[in-house]
Amino acid sequence: MKKLFIKTFGCQMNVYDSARMADLLAPLGYAPVEAPEQADMVILNTCHIREKAAEKVYSDLGRLRLDKQARAAEGRNMILAVAGCVAQAEGAEILRRAPFVDLVVGPQTYHRLPEMVARASRAGGQQMDTDFPVEPKFDYLPRPGAAGATSAFLSVQEGCDKFCTFCVVPYTRGAEYSRPQADILADARTLMDEGVLEITLVGQNVNAYHGGDAGLGGLLRALADLGVPRLRYTTSHPVDMDEDLIAAHGDIPQLMPFLHLPVQSGSDRILEAMNRRHSRDDFRRVVERLRRVRPDLALSSDFIVGFPGESDADFQDTLDLVDELQLAQAYSFKYSPRPGTPAANLESQLPEEIKSARLAALQDRINAAQEAFNRSCLGLVMPVLLDRPGRHDGQVVGRSPYMQAVHVDAGAALLNRITDLKITAAHPNSLTGIPVSSVTKATA
Ligand code: 5AD
Ligand code: SF4
Fold first, then answer.
1. Using CA atoms, how far apart are residues 340 and 351, in angstroms rounded to an integer?
2. CA 389 → CA 53, 153, 386, distances in Å?
3. Protein residue closest via CA to atom 2 of ligand 2
4. Mapping DSSP to helix (H, G, I), strand (E, B) and coil, where does residue 150 land?
């Protein structure tokens, strides 16, 4: 067997793509390993969303060059590939700056990896494929394997036509594309046959899904009918939260009561400049409608601070919205100008100090909201899919229905099962639980 190491940066789409790359390379004799040393092939599956993410790739490449040289000194080869959105956005630049890189492959062409690898092993030389082919890569991917996991990602949609003015995704991932519903159901059946208990549908703009007659709501219903025990989806755009999808949160019991719905800013002026196509009140109304059908829905969001021209008052609107929404969690970022996006050319760029101060203030509010949400879960009983070992001996970890990490001590026998847990401690970033059966025993 040959050793394959894949390092994944960025979003769930990349996590999904990395798993599929491993599936694709398995027939060539590559088996995944946990570290780049001794690997016959290393893939960096990269993210271009913010400058920092893209920079990391070049520093990793510097280190990998030494690994590759060390192997060459032993007379062995290491194929080095850069995949993902940095590959798509600056492929030629990578080949120039890092001439020891063998392959550059974009997110829409990685189904061609096997032939690229074969060519690289045979003839050597650098190869790059960053097309946006007409035929979707999904037609060429093998059926997904669960690789022993009980929670799996399933890609249903890719790309984005929204063109938010700060975002590179429409350029790196290409136009919106939805997979046919029948293909998705077939993949879901395969995953369930392999023991998967939770499927998270992923897409850059997942609720723009239109591969069936009834959009994402219809797809979720079809998956629930198929018997998938737990369903989630990410990431959504507020404008695409249609009536049917909102209703789905009320009437599909398998759909977990958690939604990641990025709002980016609480200021109408900034939302407009971001080309988000919705106001702060539109967003509030969507949340209100969701909570009407699913009162315990836990809400998560994304925020950008320091977008060009953001005033103190605009930023205050964002803080106020965070307080009002009672978020269960949220991600927040300093605006990072991305080459080729409209906002990068605006003259009203803000200084780094303002961005940093605003980020710190926003994160304080978000952390407070998250802690309050976690505390509100104390004493509740919730079904948790414990899907991985924890850091301590015998400890297992899973996600609550509301997406919090939940730890159980001495729970090894509960691994890869859905178990009713009583929440006994709430921490800033996680919960501790004990199985309800042991609660009953202790008090009996
Ligand atoms: N700068 C900062 N954050 C960004 N995001 C996307 N583009 C940028 C950028 N240029 C954030 C958004 C998005 C999340 C995935 O990353 O909040 O929802
Ligand atoms: Fe980027 Fe906006 Fe598309 Fe999300 S909706 S991927 S932020 S362009």
1. 20
2. 28, 19, 8
3. 164
4. coil
Beta bridge partners of 128: 104
The answer to whether the CB of 151 is under 6 A from ligand 2 is no
* Angstrom distance (rounded) from CA 219 to CA 260: 18
Q: Which residue has the tokens 């020891």?
A: 100
Q: For residue 386, which of 421, 362, 352 has the smallest C-alpha distance?
A: 421
Cα–Cα distance measured from residue 13 to residue 204, given in angstroms and rounded to the nearest whole number: 7
| pLDDT one-digit tens code per residue, 223-264 | 999 999 999 999 999 999 999 999 999 999 999 999 999 999
203 neighbors 237 (Cβ within 8 angstroms): no
- In ligand 1, the atom with minimum distance to the C-alpha of 166 is 10
The pTM (predicted TM-score) of the whole model is 0.93
CA–CA separation, 217 and 233 (whole Å):
11
Tens-place pLDDT, residues 363-401: 999 999 999 999 999 999 999 999 999 988 889 999 999
CA dist 301 → 40, 197, 276, 364 (Å): 39, 25, 14, 15
Please state the atom number of ligand 2 nearest to the C-alpha of residue 160.
3
The contacts of residue 442 (CB under 8 Å, 6+ apart) are none
Instruction: Determine whether the shortest distance from the Cβ of 160 to ligand 2 is under 6 A.
Output: yes
Q: Is the dihedral of CA 168, 213, 403, 200 positive or negative?
A: negative
Bridge pairing between strands 2-8 and 30-32: parallel
pLDDT (0 to 100) of residue 444 = 46
Q: Which of 292, 293, 232 is nearest to 258 (CA)?
A: 232
Task: For residue 163, report the distance from its CA to the centre of ligand 2, in Å.
Answer: 6
User: Tokens 């199985």 identify what position?
Assistant: 435
Residue of 378, 381, 371, 428 lying closest to 401 (CA atoms): 381
Residue ranges lining ligand 1, Cβ < 6 Å: 49-50, 166-167, 262, 264, 302, 304, 333, 335-336, 338
What whole-number distance in Å separates Cα of residue 16 and Cα of residue 149? 13
Phi, psi of 14 (to 5 degrees): -70, -35
Rounded Cα gap, residues 158 and 108, in angstroms: 9
| Mean pLDDT across the chain | 94
Name the phi and psi angles at 384, rounded to 5.
-125, 130
Ligand 1 atom with minimal separation from the 337 CA: 10
48 lines ligand 2 (CB under 6 A): no
Is a pLDDT exceeding 70 seen at residue 362? yes
* Cα(54)–Cα(387) distance, integer angstroms: 31
Residue with tokens 């046919």, as numbered in its chain? 180
